[in-house]
Amino acid sequence: SERLKTAEKDFLEDDGILITTKMDRGADLKGMKSIVVMKFPFPEREDPLLKGMERRLGKEAFWRYYRDIAERCFVQQLGRVLRSSKDVVEFWSPDEICHRMLRKLWRGEIEVKRCFH
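and the corresponding structure tokens:
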């Protein structure tokens, strides 16, 4: 979309800083040095489509589906800045779930550096 192209252009021109509430599809932010994910992207439970899926699938299958949506969205967010196997970025998040899921889902190399003791 035109809005996304403008955001990418602004990112490249404004010291490489892009702040957005959602960035999981369509953006190629190659060259970004850090990514901050404020919270793990669990879908909104009140979404009518999700409520319908829960009724259709049953509880156990629904929760597998729900977690799969969140995990795929998270990997997509990381993939906006990690565009090749040679890319290196810092990952920041106040949400421990994000750190746990990064270790579980990311197939690339991860180097952990603690900044707080």
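(Above: one complete record from the training split.) The chain has four helices and two strands.
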